[in-house]
Amino acid sequence: ISCKVVVTLFMYFLATNYYWILVEGLYLHSLIFMTFFSDKKYLWGFTLIGWGVPAVFVTIWATVRATLADTECWNLSAGNLKWIYQVPILVAVVINFLLFL
């Protein structure tokens, strides 16, 4: 069980890296392109994006993995289940790229 917890935490913190980079991109975009912007108004939203969105899809991945492919220790490349966490990370990267075209 400890190996599965470590892999799940690794996946969560890996995903939070990409989503906090997205938050930085959104914040910079709002500073450059939005004239009237309140930092406190969007702080909770940014925090929710940075910590909350990865928690949702990593929880879904861990639940599906525990249900459908519960092998000894979970590796990160287990068939099609990897798309559960790879697609949201890819979406964050693409949105960040599109913000500054």
TrEMBL record:
One of its GO terms (molecular function) is G protein-coupled peptide receptor activity. One of its GO terms (cellular component) is plasma membrane. It is a multi-pass membrane protein. InterPro entries: GPCR_2, GPCR_2-like_7TM, GPCR_2_secretin-like. It is found in: Membrane. Pfam families: 7tm_2. One of its GO terms (biological process) is cell surface receptor signaling pathway. Residues 1-101 form the G-protein coupled receptors family 2 profile domain. PANTHER family: PARATHYROID HORMONE_PARATHYROID HORMONE-RELATED PEPTIDE RECEPTOR (PTHR45620:SF27), PDF RECEPTOR-LIKE PROTEIN-RELATED (PTHR45620). This is Parathyroid hormone 1 receptor a. It comes from Nothobranchius kadleci (African annual killifish). The lineage of its organism: Eukaryota, Metazoa, Chordata, Craniata, Vertebrata.
